[in-house]
Write the structure tokens for this entry.
Amino acid sequence: MVLRKRLTQKSPIKRQRPLSNSLPILFAKVSISTNAASSAEVKYENKKTDPLARVVGVDEHYINNSGLTVEEGRGFSDFDIQNNLNLCVIGSDFKKTLLKDVNPIGKNYFGKRV
């Protein structure tokens, strides 16, 4: 049998405020995406890709939620989505093959389904 001594004195440990009141509230950011084309041909000036390019429509949270990082330029913003701006984010493979010596930021690209 183990006897426990009942404590009658106040505990020397001060109670602190609950953590939930002191931490900032974080909200999950849900993203949506849709496969617009799985075999598209993308064109820049007189160069074009093989019809293997994938075109995905995404929102402003897709890049972060997918674990991707932006090497140059920026991702989509809430303003871009709300105003239906015609913008694109290209992959590094696309840049290496079609835009070897060109800065891709601010350029116009055209795509079509094949």
In short: Strands lie at 33-44, 47-48, 53-58, 110-113. DSSP finds four helices and four strands in the chain. Residues 66 and 76 are 14 Å apart (CA to CA).
